[in-house]
Write the structure tokens for this entry.
Amino acid sequence: MILSIVNNKGGVGKTTSAVSLAAAFAATKRRTLLIDLDAQGSASLSLGIARADLSPSSAEVILEGLPIASAIRPSLVEHLAILPGGMTLASADLALSDVKGRETVLKAALGPIRSAYDLVILDCPPSLGLLTVNALTASDFFIIPLTPDYLALEGLVNLMEAVERIRAGIGKVAELLGILLTLCDYRLNATNEIIAMIRGHYGRKVFKTEIRGSVRLKEAPSFGKTIFDFAPHSSGADGYSKLAKEILKAI
Ligand SMILES: Nc1ncnc2c1ncn2[C@@H]1O[C@H](COP(=O)(O)OP(=O)(O)OP(=O)(O)O)[C@@H](O)[C@H]1O
Ligand SMILES: [Mg+2]
């Protein structure tokens, strides 16, 4: 199964969710591949890859036709492989603009290795540009991480409409697997109100599991460790392992 983590809003926990979910799936001994589609390479750095070692990355695969297998490498986490992100992804929209089939480059690149993994997780950049479109056409499902604040709901409506436009234009794209409430701070009254509103509106499309705001989750990337290696007994580790179980039940 191929799963994209998508939201054009920045800083909503896409990368944290992609890395933590990939690690949670790998912990169940499922062969897992994390693909970093962000020019910042945050998911790759979070897994302990040095900035100088990002290349060859998903940029060479998508923009230069490098065979994907030659850019994928093992991570320090057992059963988890990674295709890093790279700086040149920043110019992907321009570089792909004249390419025929520019929306399905990633899907085609994934073909040869699809059967080598049980799960592939794609960490998308905070935009709805061609990289995210490529992720959506290559994936079976997508997850939208969402922070419970007032502007979030409005952004969500726009995002859903954008995905429908992409679907109308391209045909088969990923289905929404669920909305993930992240960075939840229950000390704020507004948090519970907004969560109730989102659940009221989107019902079963919202994952039961909610991810709390957690200092440990924020710290883990700077140590190049997943939350399960950095703080296995934290609320973040518990949250993401529950979410992985919820997803495995749903698919
Ligand atoms: N549950 C959480 N608790 C505390 N901090 C978190 C949590 N989830 C993410 N963060 C922190 O919030 C910041 C943004 O998270 P993250 O990088 O995962 O978001 P993103 O959506 O990938 O951002 P971007 O759009 O820039 O790629 C990071 O500093 C991250 O460590
Ligand atoms: Mg990110």
Notes: Strands lie at 2-5, 32-36, 73-74, 80-83, 119-123, 141-146, 175-181.
